[in-house]
Amino acid sequence: MKKSDLRTGMQIQFNNGMRAVVLIGTMYGDVFCSLENSVWGTLNMEDVIKVFECMHPDQYIHTEFIDDHIIWERTPEKTYELDGVEYSESTLRSLIKRAQG
Q1: Which contiguous run of DSSP H or E holds residue 8?
Q2: CA–CA separation, 52 vs 33, rounded Å?
Q3: What rounded mean pLDDT belongs to the chain?
Q4: Per DSSP, which regions of the chain are E strands?
Q5: Is 12 helix (H, G, I), strand (E, B) or coil?
Q6: Measured between alpha carbons, how far is 71 from 54 in angstroms, rounded to an integer?
Q7: Alpha-carbon distances of 92 from 15, 75, 80, rounded to whole Å
Q8: Whole-number Å distance between alpha carbons of 14 and 44
Q9: What is the pTM for the complete model shown?
């Protein structure tokens, strides 16, 4: 899923377990806001592992999140160990591409 696919009111979950609401086009840009602990920040899709669709217009203002409507979930990236160092698949692809070009 790309950042451009997100809409205001959608809920996201980060790899650290924090859940937040997406706010698109604010004066600070595209941001997220956690209703659990008032944390907010600039939206970065690299840390997002799940996206939830907001089924009811007022659902995003509740502090209880509903898991029933997951519309995207990141699949864990494969890792490989080489000489005692663990590399992600995307890192290895990038290194191979640099070595070839």
Answers
A1: none
A2: 14
A3: 85
A4: 11-14, 19-26, 29-33, 40-42, 48-52, 70-73, 79-82, 85-88
A5: strand
A6: 10
A7: 22, 17, 9
A8: 10
A9: 0.69
Separation of alpha carbons 72 and 60, rounded Å: 17
What is the DSSP code (8-state) at residue 93?
A: H
- Torsion over CA: 54, 59, 62, 68 (sign): negative
CA 85 → CA 80, 81, 82, distances in Å?
Answer: 8, 5, 5
What is the pLDDT, as a whole number, of residue 58? 61
Residue that is written with structure tokens 């698109």 in the block: 24
Locate 52 and state its tokens.
Answer: 């939830």
Query: Which tens digit of pLDDT belongs to each residue from 29-78?
Result: 999 998 778 889 998 898 899 998 877 656 655 556 666 688 999 988 78
